[in-house]
Design goal:
315 residues, alpha+beta, three-stranded antiparallel β-sheet, two-stranded antiparallel sheet, 9 strands, 32% helix, globular
């Protein structure tokens, strides 16, 4: 029997901390082509170790269930949706990554990637790529049943998951909630794309799925349904994790991560290794060499009220 996330848990997990406004949508553009698939890579096994046998796939989710599962992230920019979907397939690594990202939230850019290398963070690069977004990792860690559902659905039904994202976007667009703004470009057409205006700055929207995927209530201001706030700066430092090249080729049901098609499925999940140039660490981690500061209550409250806060922690 599937475990459903309560309405209260879903709403709590969705409280991300941003606000903004909309302008008219941009014109549609043709999707970028799919790059050639790299040679299949597999994780090395110790000599004499038994070859892992994948267990039975989970029961298929029907379309209505997939709509529910993707609704919290369907209106995020394409590069961020792609990164969340792939990271969710490593859902057991999310809580540890969320705690580390929260404790090191005061670091950015090269200082953050240097800390990740010094601490030899052991998570898959798809999870590491979300470290600049402690709020998103925190959302995923606080709603693990949902995160596991999302990861398993993407492993076993990736095409159906992408179709569900498009259904939800079409619904929000039809009702007038989803439009271009100063930080995002919404491209309509048979497939709706949501792209950052500047690929080095990724903004996270706040919206209530119970509102934006339903007809507007009488008197409700549609423009307030989706709020966009301050952006997270990624920059070239995080390019090795795939940022700037992550995207969807919607008409081919393909997710591009680090400029290569993502091929991890339920069947090969124990052996698939996606091509990255970042180091993958295993074994005991070195002792923590940085000061750790969880976000303060004032910082968290500022995020909840969609206000840009002054960093209270200094290196």
């Amino acid at each position: 029997m599937r475990r459903h996330v309560s309405r209260q848990t879903l709403v709590f997990a969705l409280v991300l901390t941003f606000a903004g406004y909309w302008i008219a949508p941009a014109s549609a553009q043709a999707p970028l082509p799919v790059p050639p698939a790299p040679p299949q890579q597999t994780a090395p096994l110790p000599q004499g170790a038994p070859v892992p046998v994948p267990g039975p796939a989970p029961a298929a989710y029907p379309p209505a269930e997939l709509d529910r599962i993707v609704s919290p992230i369907a209106l995020y920019p394409d590069p961020l949706v792609a990164q969340i979907l792939t990271a969710a397939t490593y859902y057991t690594q999310i809580p540890d990554a969320a705690a580390w990202a929260d404790q090191h939230h005061y670091l950015t850019g090269a200082a953050l990637t240097s800390a990740m290398a010094a601490d030899q963070v052991p998570w898959d690069p798809s999870v590491q790529a979300l470290v600049p977004f402690p709020s998103i990792l925190g959302m995923m860690a606080s709603a693990m049943p949902w995160t596991q559902e999302l990861g398993n659905a993407f492993l076993d039904q990736s095409n159906d998951v992408m179709d569900a994202v498009q259904r939800m976007r079409q619904s929000a667009y039809q009702y007038g909630y989803l439009r271009s703004g100063p930080q995002v470009i919404v491209r309509g057409g048979p497939y709706i794309e949501i792209q950052p205006v500047n690929p080095d700055y990724i903004v996270v929207p706040y919206y209530d799925p119970l509102v934006v995927f339903a007809p507007p209530r009488r008197g409700f201001v549609v423009a307030s349904g989706v709020r966009w706030g301050f952006s997270v700066f990624i920059g070239p430092t995080f390019a090795p994790w795939g940022w700037r090249t992550n995207r969807f080729v919607w008409n081919q049901h393909t997710v591009i991560i680090n400029n290569a098609p993502w091929r991890r499925t339920w069947v090969n999940r124990t052996t698939y290794v996606h091509p990255y140039t970042v180091a993958r660490y295993a074994g005991p981690r070195p002792s923590e060499d940085h000061r750790v500061y969880e976000r303060s209550s004032r910082e968290r409250e500022a995020e909840k009220s969609s206000r840009k806060y002054k960093e209270e922690h200094h290196r």
